[in-house]
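On clarity, I found the account of how folds are encoded harder to follow than it need be. Since the whole study asks how a given chain folds, the encoding of that fold should be made plain. For illustration, here is how one protein appears when written out as sequence plus structure tokens:

:::
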Amino acid sequence: MSNYRKLILFGSGLILIFALMFHKEEQLKELFQLAKPDHISVLYLRLLLNISPEDENLRIELANQYINLGQYENARDELNFLILQNGHTAIDARLLLLEIDLSDYFLLSNHDVRREIELEKLQAGITEISKISIPVALFPKIIKLSLELNQPSTAADLYYQWAGSEPKINGKFEKLKEAAQWYIAAGLPDKAAGIYHESYELTEDAALARQFALLTLQTLQSAGDSKLAVEYFRIYQQRFPEDAELLEEAINISLRNNAPEQAYEFGSLRLALDPENPEQLRKQYDRALAIGKTQQALALTQRLIEIVPNDDSSHERLAQIAEWSQQPKLAVKEWLWLARKRKDTPAILNTLRLSTQLNLHNITIEMFERLSNIRELSKEEMNNLLYAYDNMHNLSSKR
């Protein structure tokens, strides 16, 4: 090497040493992040550490340079030294060691028997780190590592801790939401529901509180804790007494909890918010039937027919409920409406059955005529038709 080139290198080295000695810590870190790692940088850092061996930030940067050069064992030596010193950069050191171990883990083949053992060690390491007092600046990095190691519950714990140190209320809620979502991903919906309810209690914003209330109920329903969900709903109901969506959740929870009376109670409140809604009327008469309230179901079905007069299914349901309620005259009226509209065999036969019982001979004759257009009448049906004709004739004679 020429003297000129040696002089240039020596001069560059001196400039770098002075830069390292007089830059602030943040500037120093930025300098080494931007500079391409090389062995000269490592030598200069080692020289500076010999001058100031207590400088933990310099040691962290030296470890980073070793990692960038692929000299992992040298990096481990520096990081292990920092962990033993238990200084303020000990957590940084532990994270860097974990990242080195993670890179080693990814080098193992899928068939390597060590993979499972090494993964368990890594997961235990990130869990242990998550339980100590963590500087706010390190939360994102630790959370990222937790997720890379398939530890969503650890990530959730960290988000929850991070929310506790968040000074801004909006930032706090965002982190609480993240915590809840990762608890759900970890198969812990009960913990997620607890966070949503805690968020509900923290906020004074009505729209946000309603959002958290819905999330709490939905999450508890997925967790199978219907009892607690109903307890929470009673709390939310006081603040949002006429919220249709919350009532829908409460109804679903009640049905899932096999509490039909409670579902009917909440259904009545839901229907009161939209009394002319056909879908709500259908749902509520089904709930009424489920608990044996046939008269209420009858009234609800009649109201539905007033709103949607040409709905076949409602007429058929009213006919059925009327029979269950021992009101055959109402039932035959509905079956007759269906027979005339649909002209189908089941409606005709049901009308025939009731008209015969009630001696409504004109309706009986009409139904037999309709039935004969569909198929040939049996001998018994022909006899019943003649009987109806005879009775009609006798009635006419008496008049």
Q: What stands out?
A: Residues 1-11, 20-26 have pLDDT under 50 and may be disordered. Residues 316 and 334 are 7 Å apart (CA to CA). DSSP finds 22 helices and no strands in the chain. Residues 18-86 form one domain.
